[in-house]
């Protein structure tokens, strides 16, 4: 395969994630990468760069939530194929830290949550989306089951934000406070309130949430 | 033919509608909306935040109808799609009656449909919803202060969000039910003290059970009042909202269905969001029974961060949606806004005036509550309600082309000051008002009058006596 053909194939892979948002095309391009015996790690870098580009476009108001979601699906489709030829060690090093993420009990709003999840995934975190109306006990059990280090809890409503305070109390009561970091966010939550309830971090928006979680992951 | 009865709609929501994962529904909304925006050539025009193209407003309406016929609504609890065919939608829209009568006795008012560039007066449903007013006496004082403004025709009232009987409040708990009843009782006490016992109230408890509990002809929400029914972004409902409708249909009170359609969310950009907002107005007819004079709605494109309706994109969306609905249906549609700046600030007054000027000449039937997008205790006052209302009355004198110029001038005053954190926080009620006399403090009146003069100089002639 010539350098030009390789470039064309990698562009195809990149475009499937960041231009056409097409999981099928991403899967097909990834399969072709393996068929041509190209370096899967190089292809994975291309996919990661493409999803970051979508995230940047979202911040600039040039892409919207649906594009983030489908680009995420396309990324996942490509990675599922590319990972099959990696060694166990390579796969382990490729996967980022785990995070569990949900909208708290009583609250069914999910737009902000979905955006932050996609932005976290775009920088390499493994995020488990627990959906909406998630009770504190589910946050804890899911984080335990998935060996996550960070729980992100979102509340748009003022009348449900206390659920985040409860989550922190539950984690403390169970003697797990050193094991899990809790990040608070959502329309109702303020920085002051997050500090008051003892959250480890507060994300005003998706960009700040990514920064805060990245910072927390660097701590022991 | 008649549109499906509400019980048939509930059957589709709970039992017979096709099941679909929520993500598939969300993506279907986006794909269909994107296609329809192209087909109908719906284009956001940042240079003209107040739309003056009648053909575009009509195209937006058509796109909204087609979207709703293709995707329907989604019930989050049952994971079922509630679908209607085009014939049913036509029948439903035909059943919408012009005019909704609110309030009782000397406070009875009828909210009429308004047309574009209409000179008729708007209806003012004030309020400072979800502003975390403490329970008890302070709650009564806040709403009494709103009710004593003669320009107000009614107001939204949500329960305190901090505590009930001094205890921490949780949604859907027995304490919320108790507080829903208390809040309606305090609001009734407030309007009695203001000498307007028949004034219209719109109850916005978070859960259906609390709103249902608040309904009481003697002490709470009457049949001439309304229950607020939200739509979750985009085109989604749940058993709480459907429960509110089911109860109100039986009890016989009014409903206030609303949607805040998020720009950059599932609908995509400002064009897609405007299409979805129009589809939500149709959803309010088909699912929330916004017909036969039983309801008035609010369908409002909103910026994502901060969650406000007064930036350029949201202004364009609210202007053109109001036009599409007013030109093509008898749906009673009013505006309520979240703003970036807090009470008592110049910026908040600019924002309220901007929204009124953009939407009243666009056919909105009136204006509603004002709140800063981020909640802080007592962060609301009657002054912004009054300013919004006065601007709405003044805006009835404007043609859309004039309104467009004033809106551009107002945006120039504050647009660059909108940050991800909103704008200046402002002042709580007890710093704006004298708590003994329930009148605004001198320095606050000076700010109010100064901004009013500035806005007047931009071409908005205030005319409320």
CATH superfamily label of chain B:
Monomethylamine methyltransferase MtmB
Helix content of chain B: 40-55%
CATH architecture verdict of chain B: Alpha-Beta Barrel
How much strand of chain A?
A: 5-15%
Question: What is the secondary structure topology, with strand pairs?
Answer:
The complex is a heterodimer of chains A (220) and B (465).
Chain A: H1 3-18, H2 23-35, H3 40-59, H4 65-82, H5 88-94, E1 98-103, H6 111-122, E2 126-129, H7 136-145, E3 150-154, H8 162-173, E4 181-185, H9 191-196, E5 201-203, H10 206-218
Parallel strand pairs in A: 1-2, 1-3, 3-4, 4-5
Helix pairs in contact in A: 1-2, 1-3, 1-4, 2-4, 3-4, 4-6, 6-10, 7-8
Chain B: H1 6-16, H2 22-39, H3 54-71, E1 73-75, E2 80-82, H4 86-94, E3 100-102, E4 109-111, E5 123-126, H5 137-147, E6 154-157, E7 163-164, E8 167-168, H6 174-193, E9 200-203, H7 208-214, E10 226-231, E11 236-237, H8 239-251, E12 254-262, H9 270-286, E13 298-302, H10 312-328, E14 335-339, H11 346-359, E15 366-372, H12 382-395, H13 400-414, H14 429-432, E16 433-434, E17 439-440, H15 442-457
Parallel strand pairs in B: 1-11, 5-6, 5-15, 6-9, 9-10, 10-12, 12-13, 14-15
Antiparallel strand pairs in B: 1-2, 3-4, 7-8, 16-17
Helix pairs in contact in B: 2-3, 2-9, 3-9, 3-10, 5-6, 5-12, 6-7, 7-8, 9-10, 10-11, 11-12, 11-13, 11-15
How would you characterize the overall build of this protein?
- The complex is a heterodimer of chains A (220) and B (465).
- With 220 residues, chain A is an alpha/beta fold.
- Chain A has helices at residues 3-18, 23-35, 40-59, 65-82, 88-94, 111-122, 136-145, 162-173, 191-196, 206-218, and strands at residues 98-103, 126-129, 150-154, 181-185, 201-203.
- The longest helix of chain A has 20 residues, at 40-59.
- With 465 residues, chain B is α/β, with parallel strands linked by helices.
- Chain B has a single domain, classed as TIM Barrel (Alpha-Beta Barrel).
- In chain B, 44% of the residues lie in helices and 14% in strands.
- Chain B contains 15 helices and 17 strands.
- Chain B has helices at 6-16, 22-39, 54-71, 86-94, 137-147, 174-193, 208-214, 239-251, 270-286, 312-328, 346-359, 382-395, 400-414, 429-432, 442-457; strands spanning 73-75, 80-82, 100-102, 109-111, 123-126, 154-157, 163-164, 167-168, 200-203, 226-231, 236-237, 254-262, 298-302, 335-339, 366-372, 433-434, 439-440.
- Chain B has an 8-stranded parallel β-sheet. In chain B, strands 2-1-11 form a 3-stranded mixed β-sheet. In chain B, strands 3-4 form a two-stranded antiparallel ribbon.
- In chain B, helix 3 (54-71) crosses helix 10, helix 11 runs parallel beside helix 12 (382-395) and helix 11 (346-359) crosses helix 15 (442-457).
- The mean pLDDT of chain B is 95.
- The interface between A and B is medium-sized, with 24 and 36 residues.
